[in-house]
Structure formats: structure tokens, C-alpha cells
Known about the structure:
The complex is a heterodimer of chains A (334) and B (340).
Chain A: E1 11-23, E2 31-45, E3 50-54, H1 61-68, E4 76-81, E5 84-85, H2 91-98, E6 101-104, H3 118-128, H4 134-146, H5 163-175, E7 181-185, H6 193-210, E8 213-218, H7 221-227, E9 230-235, E10 238-244, H8 245-250, H9 255-263, H10 269-274, H11 305-309, E11 315-316, E12 322-323
Parallel strand pairs in A: 3-8, 3-9, 6-7, 7-8
Antiparallel strand pairs in A: 1-2, 1-4, 4-5, 9-10, 11-12
Helix pairs in contact in A: 3-4, 3-5, 4-5, 5-6
Chain B: E1 4-17, E2 20-33, E3 37-41, H1 48-55, E4 64-71, E5 74-75, H2 81-90, E6 92-95, H3 99-102, H4 109-118, H5 125-138, H6 144-147, H7 157-169, E7 175-179, H8 187-203, E8 207-212, H9 215-221, E9 224-229, E10 232-238, H10 239-244, H11 249-257, H12 296-300, E11 306-307, E12 314-315, H13 320-325, H14 334-339
Parallel strand pairs in B: 3-8, 3-9, 6-7, 7-8
Antiparallel strand pairs in B: 1-2, 1-4, 4-5, 9-10, 10-12, 11-12
Helix pairs in contact in B: 4-5, 5-7, 7-8
Amino acid sequence: MTEPAASQHLLEVANLVKEFPVKGGGLFRRTIGAVQAVSDVSFHLDPGETLGLVGESGCGKSTTGRAVLQLHKPTSGSVRYDGQELTTLSAKQLRPIRRDLQIVFQDPYASLNPKMPVNDIVGEPMRVHGTKGSAVLDRVADLLKRVGLNPEHGNRYPHEFSGGQRQRVGIARALALDPKVIILDEPVSALDVSVQAGVVNLLEDLQEQMGLAYIFIAHDLSVVRHISDRVAVMYLGRIVESGTRAEVYEQPSHPYTQALLSSAPIADPDKERARERIVLEGDVPSPIDPPSGCRFRTRCWKAQEICATETPELVDRGTGHPVACHFAEVREVV
Amino acid sequence: MSEEILSVNDLSVVFPTEDGMVEAVRGVSYSLSERDVLAIVGESGSGKSVAAMALMGLLPKYAQITGDVRYRGEDVLAMSPKRSRALRGQNIAMIFQDPMTAMNPVYTVGDQLAEAYRSHHRVERKVALARAVEMLDRVGIPQAKDRARSYPHEFSGGMRQRAMIAMAIINSPDIIIADEPTTALDVTVQAQILETLIEVKDSVNAAVILITHDLGVVAGMAHRVLVMYAGRGVERADVEDIYRRPRMPYTAGLLGSIPALDSAGGKLHPITGAPPSLINLPPGCPFSTRCPLVTDRCLTEEPELAATDLPHHQVACHNWEKVAETPDPTLLFRTKAVDA
């Protein structure tokens, strides 16, 4: 691959691969294989936009997010932020860049230290990066207000907050260093719908006010449609289809995207009952031993010989946006 | 109309705790007819699961259960332990959210199904095992005979949930209580499981009580819906009415909170605040703190579930007429959302 002289995009991920070793059960726990959780994933992100990464459990969407942040060291591939390659940097060299790249985790019960009051949780990133004294507390109060929490509650502990409020604390912490990119890893999945909507609105408002770029990782297709500008659909470690929100939802061209969208229920009894549903057979195969060629072929109704022998590239196949399927064809399902 | 098989009247469940009495369920009433699908919808802590567990006698001994629950006229809460055991599993079966913890990890799936059958039928082990295999086959488990010899951990999440459904229908129950049956599953697997649940429900002529927080799943499956909030039934109606003509502000708020799958949509209209603590509930309507239509009466007098302008449609709201006059009730929450 040729390297572009100067990156046009804020974040550019190219041919990202992340493998995890599979250990044997014996005394020495020798490595007996590898799970390729993320295989050859490429995408980019521009300032102020939201890229939705969707897929089912085990498709590699969270691992992709963490590999971008170098929380998991990628096995191969490139992650360029603002023109700078991150994969070759040492932990020390990465630290200043981490100001710009933040993450919000799914579980607001597990990702906040129960022994720290909220003021310390939100202030910690600033202290780590060298802000001292009362400036930290002022900024924390400002951040808490910004995410819709009462700054007077800053000396309370996480268990004194509801799930939605905790997720707001997690967001305030991510905002502490004025980042450019936030990876949102299932940020609303653990919340009740009435609370979830408030957090989604908050994320949209913050994006508008601060020009943030989001990678929004989720399995909830409705939320992803709502919040994303562009969407990438993952299956077993690969992106199978990507495009603008309208392209992916209105002209899905990969059989998996079609099945996924048609499986997601619509909260409207007339529409929901009138829909044609594509029900897939079986389960997702093990990523330790993925199918050859197209990884979806074992569950695909279109599969033919070529699908087993040749891995389909993620390219535009005449449907207007990139699809990794030899037999890509638009089919409206929602 | 088909025959009523279950009626629940004024069911309440209180848990005494160190911090006070937790009123988890407060006077819930509904009825279920043969082959009906009733969805009980609510968010975490609304009491929807506790209400179902009370029917099944699955709550701890210290739970204080009151009310009147009748299965084909028979008083369920007052029956002898022996009769109650016979009823559960045989006439009323339950499907749990997490099949990994609901099944016994040290017995094969086939043995567990056979045991469920033998607790209600005096048959040889072999006969029960054959029945187990038949059920596994019916819920779409391939090579059911071989898979019956597997342990639960050898099954995928979707397969385990199928096995749970097989266990629920092995005694041909009249009522299947499904408590968040697909919440732990991916959407493509959820679609398979819901399809299976509908098929087997029809094949054994059972009614289903579907407990869920997912309004999409409800839209596809339910005939009747009971919306719960803070331990109380706050709206009860046919499924189309719930989505098209909600009369309770809370229901409208829930609908306005869900992003649409089939359109890009504008701003969401969330309900501000959080549900109240179930300990020492304030007087008045439990939703009053979050309600855009709140009036003085709401703060002092808790509304009962009562008739509305629509047939078969009850609501617990003093101001349902105002909701009825609003063309799109989900927009009631719009101004509040901007302040938040």
C-alpha cells in the first residue's frame, strides 16, 4: 500500500488486524492457535461526524474500537490519527495523543471506581495530564453541568447515582481533556429506553457544541441509525458493508445486513406484522476456525462455490457503496 | 371470545428490607384468555418480573404476597404445596431470560427435559427421554437425539433458549410465562427464537405472558399489553391502541424515546428524571415527578386503573383526556427535553 503524503482524514484505519492467542489447557499453557477478532478492517473518520459500527456479539466491533486506541496493540495494520501513525508509538509517546482520543464504556457500573467520588473520577484524567489544584475542580463542576448533572453532587460516590447518571459521569470523564474523537462502546445498551434517549440526545448536543467525532459501537440498529452519519456493519471480524446511513439502511446490499435489519423489531404493530423477515439459520461460526472465503457463506442463502474459495473484497459493486459480497444486490428490508 | 384461564386481581408483593418495605408490586390486575399473548411491559424495577414470579410461587418466603390469582377458577395463592407443584410446570410453565443459569450445568439437556416430564407423568425414563428428544426436535434443534446428550454449556445461547422452550412445552401447558426470553440474545437469534416461541405456542395451544422491556418485540407478538410503572399497571389495552392511541403519558413517553429503525428521525423526546424508589413511595401518582401534564391532584391522589373513551382500554391517569386530545402524545415530552 502506498502511504498518502498527508492524511486527509482525522482518523484513518487501514487493514487493521487483531489476533488473540489461544492457549492450550496443559501445564505450560502453550499457544496453540490464534483468534482473529478483527481481520483487515479499514475505515476513516472526519471531525464532527459519527461512524456507527454495528454487528452482533463476537463480531469484533469492540476490539476494533480498542485497537484504534491502542488499548489492544494491533497485530498488524495502521492507525493514523491526524497524520501520525499510532501503532509504532511507545506508551510514553502515546500519552499526549490520548488527550485527543477518549472512550466511554458500556457498563457504567463496572467502569467507574466505586471508591472514588465523582469529582475525582472526572478530574483524574486532568491530573494525569498535569493540571493541578483548583483549576481541576472548577473544570469538573463545569463538565458535570455540561452532561446534565448537578455539580453539587460531585462529592458523591458512583453507587449513589442511577445508571443513566453514571453513564453521564463516564461521558464527563471522557470530555475532561477536550478530546477530538470519542469511542462510544455500547454507551446506552445497559440503560432503560426512557433514560437511553436522554443520553443519546446529550451525545448529539455535545457533538454539536464541541465538534467531536464519534465511533459509535452498538448492536442496537435503531440507535445506530438515529445517531450515525456513516455506518459499517461487521460480521466475524470483517466489515461486510459500509456507507452513509441512508445507503446502509435504505439500500442494504449484503445478505447479512439485510438479515440483520430485517430481524430488528420495529415498535409499530402494523409495520412489524406486515414485514417480511429473513430468519437466518444456525449460529455465528467460531472465530477460531472461520469459514474460508466469505465468512458469512455458511448461513447465506446466496452462497455458491466462489464464496468458499474467494474472499469478497469490500468494494462498490454497483449498488453505490462498498459491499463485501460476490452477489451484492439491493433489497429493502425496513 | 375464548375462555379466560387466568385472572389476577389486585396482586401486591412487598419485601421487608432493612431500609423499609419495598412495594415491588402494588395492586396489579389482568386476565388472560386461551391462546392469548399478553405482554407486560416496563423498565427495570417496574415490578413486571416479580408479578410473574409471584404467580409461579418463585419468590422467597419473606415476600408478602396478597391479592387474588385464579387459574381456571382455582385460587393459586391459597392452594396446597402439592397442588401448587402439580400446577407449575404442568399447566403454567416459565421461560427465563438467562438459560445458562436456569439450567443445571451437571445434567445433560435431555435428562433435564425428561425430569421435567417425569415430575408430572408416571412414565419410564426411556419414554420421558424420547419425549424430550421429540420436544427438542420441535423447537428446531438439529440432530435432537444426539444433542439431548449434550450439557447446557455445549449449546450456544440461542440453542439453550430453544432447549428452555422445549422444557416449557414438554407438559403441554396452558400458559407459558416468558420473562425477557430474548434479551440476552443477538437480534438474528432473537428473530429465530420468537418465531419458534410462536410456533410452539400454537402447537400446544398455550397462552403466553411475555414480560419484556422491548416495545419492538411487543409490537410483533402481543395481542394485549399491560404497561407497568413503579409496581403498578398504568395502562392496559389492545396492542394497536398502545402504539396508536396511548392514554397514559408514561406510555407516550416510552414511545417517544425509541429511535425508529425505519426512518432517520429527528430528535428523541426522552422522559426526564428517573423512576421513584419503591421504598416509602410518596402519595399521589408515581409518575407525577416526570410527567409533563402533572396537576395538583396528581400529587395527592394516586389514580386507579379505570376505563377510557376506548373499549378494552384502561389507564391510571387523572389527565388521560388531555392525552387523548393531543394529536401526537409523544410530543408532550418535547419542551421538557429541551430543558434537560
